[in-house]
Design a protein that fits this description.
The protein is of the alpha/beta class. The chain has one domain (3-240): Alanine racemase (TIM Barrel, Alpha-Beta Barrel), CATH 3.20.20.10. 37% of the residues lie in helices and 14% in strands. It is built from 9 helices and 8 strands. The protein has helices spanning 14-34, 52-60, 71-80, 99-105, 115-128, 154-160, 182-200, 220-225, 235-238, and strands at 42-45, 65-68, 87-90, 108-112, 132-137, 167-173, 211-213, 230-233. The strands form 2 sheets. Strands 2-3-4-5-6-7 form a 6-stranded parallel β-sheet. A two-stranded parallel ribbon has the order 1-8. Helix 4 (99-105) links the parallel strand 3 and strand 4. Helix 4 crosses helix 5. The longest helix has 21 residues, at 14-34. The radius of gyration is 17 Å and the shape is globular. The two termini are 15 Å apart. The relative contact order is 0.18. Bound molecules: pyridoxal-5'-phosphate (PLP). Pyridoxal-5'-phosphate is lined by residues 46, 48, 69, 91-92, 175, 216-218, 232-235, 248.
Length: 259
């Protein structure tokens, strides 16, 4: 996937953002043409670490949705940008004690991985009179350091979800292995798609597993070829992050910075 050789230039002006968004969208469109799955693909821009003034320019350039990994950072930006026409997704691992924050403002949550968390979210959402679109996170790489359910746990987990009426289940989510070996990365995406295909017919009523949230700046074209319906793209839109990814993911998942 060659991420090591890619330079992500920092987008500053509205024009920079227009250029990057058009470029990413063009790459999405051509990957869709290569995909045998014929699925719709939604671009979810990831604005973690990006300050509010630059986020405003991204919105002016056409971003209508934004995603953040850390809930406090997302909540702070949601408050600061309340005047902006944009909706928020939380895409990172969430501790149960932070469910209340998510319930307050998020439209979508991509990292559902326990019944306790589902319970906490549902209770807080009901109290707030809100609902939330959710994706169930699956660990497709087998790495200890990655969050998410083991593939064999997903069927049992999904069977519990109708108990939580404020959660609208939309599909499965994964982070692929970080590897220059394209076939190892592809195998993670194929695993998620196969799991979705297998579980879709047995999923309880009201539980929609059709969505596949997979692919980021370094691997979204591959993910789309394998059936992604949502790609979570940060650096290819906003530019390289100064903060190491270890800050956002568990230890051991940090990638080599672009050289
Ligand atoms: C940061 C992040 C992304 C986007 O990564 P980029 O390399 O910036 O595209 C996608 N998914 C999750 C869960 C993330 O934390």
């Amino acid at each position: 996937m060659g991420e090591e050789s890619v330079e992500y230039r920092t987008a500053v002006t509205v024009d920079d953002f227009r250029t990057n968004l058009a470029d990413v969208q063009a790459r999405i469109d051509s990957a869709r043409e290569r995909s045998p799955h014929g699925q719709p693909v939604r671009l979810l821009p990831v604005s973690k670490t990006v300050p509010e003034d630059r986020i405003r320019r991204a919105i002016e350039a056409g971003c209508t949705e934004l995603a953040e990994n850390k809930v406090q950072e997302a909540h702070r930006k949601w408050q600061a940008l309340a005047d902006q026409p944009v909706t928020w997704s939380v895409i990172g691992h969430l501790q149960t004690n932070k469910a209340k924050l998510v319930a307050e403002f998020a439209r979508e949550f991509h990292a559902l991985d326990s019944v306790r968390l589902a319970e906490a979210l549902d209770r807080r959402l009901q109290a707030a009179g809100r609902e939330l679109d959710v994706f169930v996170q699956v660990n497709t790489s087998g790495e200890e350091s990655k969050f998410g359910l083991a593939p064999q746990e997903v069927e049992g987990f999904v069977a519990e979800l109708p108990r939580f009426p404020a959660l609208r289940v939309k599909g499965l989510m994964t982070l692929a292995v970080f590897s220059p070996d394209v076939e190892r990365v592809r195998a993670c995406f194929v695993l998620l798609r196969d799991l979705r295909d297998r579980l879709q017919s047995t999923a309880p009523e009201g539980v929609d597993l059709s969505g596949l949230s997979m692919g980021m700046s370094g691997d979204f074209e591959l993910a789309i070829e394998e059936g992604a319906t949502v790609v979570r793209v940060g650096q290819a839109i906003f530019g390289a992050r100064a903060v190491p990814d270890a800050h956002y993911w568990p230890a051991g998942t940090d990638r080599v910075p672009p050289t």
